[in-house]
Design brief:
alpha/beta; three-stranded mixed β-sheet; 9 helices; binds NADP nicotinamide-adenine-dinucleotide phosphate
Length: 275
Amino acid sequence: MKIVVIGGTGLIGSKLVNKFREHGDEAVAAAPNTGVNTVTGEGLAEVLTGASVVVDVSNSPDWEDAAVLKFFETSTRNLLTYEAAAGVGHHVALSVVGTDRLFESGYFRAKIAQEKLIKESSIPYSIVHATQFFEFLKGLADISMDGGKVHLPPVLFQPMAADDVAAGVARIAVGPPVNDIVEIGGPEQFRVDELVRRRLATLKDPREVIADPNARYDGAKVSWETLLPCNNARMGETRFETWLTQPAAQIPSAPPQPTGATVGTKEKETRKKAS
Ligand SMILES: NC(=O)c1ccc[n+]([C@@H]2O[C@H](COP(=O)([O-])OP(=O)(O)OC[C@H]3O[C@@H](n4cnc5c(N)ncnc54)[C@H](OP(=O)(O)O)[C@@H]3O)[C@@H](O)[C@H]2O)c1
């Protein structure tokens, strides 16, 4: 089976390509670096020829509100149009647990727009909602800086290892389309501020983490359970302490993701450059 992974050179995408190949499928990594650009349409018709499944794990290079909306709308529209022409039978997209509850955030409004286009299209689909990745805990601190300290809301989340995200997405991609949302999450719940504090300590990062009930989550107000997956979410196996012993945890810096609290203008610029 030919599976095209849009964003196949990224964190989740590169793991997915390996998993599909190990499973015996023909997996193609599609990204600007491999000559496929979903925003301009470059290379899309060629790469989708003969594809049964498309997995979209791309991300916008710019998270300014209007730019990220334009990215996900244009990219998703183009993809779905070319997929219909190529006869693709399953469109899989990776999104975030709680997306529909985080509409105050420009990033999440863009993900909501992406999901709406998928649901309205004629292509059978599966939308995977994953919780935050362990790999982005430091990035979360980076985008949550205010007055030299990390400000995070003291609310629950259930983060997971990127390896488990890729395994969950791969399992769903090779199965029949569910035409619905499937949630995946980690095996343990933590308070956001507490886990980021622990992660920074393992990196010997001296920044102070403040549990700030007024801190927003990438611009969105969150309450105690906003970021949690539903009860029947599929669970990744890797516990945080186990992940810390793995090579992925030894990388001190990963590009920040849109999973943070109130971000000032300066921090927004930093985030944009880092991405
Ligand atoms: N971070 C979290 O905690 C979290 C949680 C749940 C879900 N997610 C979702 O997970 C998804 C993937 O995240 P990630 O961290 O794996 O992303 P990533 O490492 O930043 O990779 C993004 C990929 O998108 C590609 N891309 C960018 N512009 C493109 C374009 N115009 N056409 C085709 N490909 C393009 C990039 O290619 P180049 O390298 O060539 O630019 C790269 O391969 C995102 O959609 C995000 O919303 C994230």
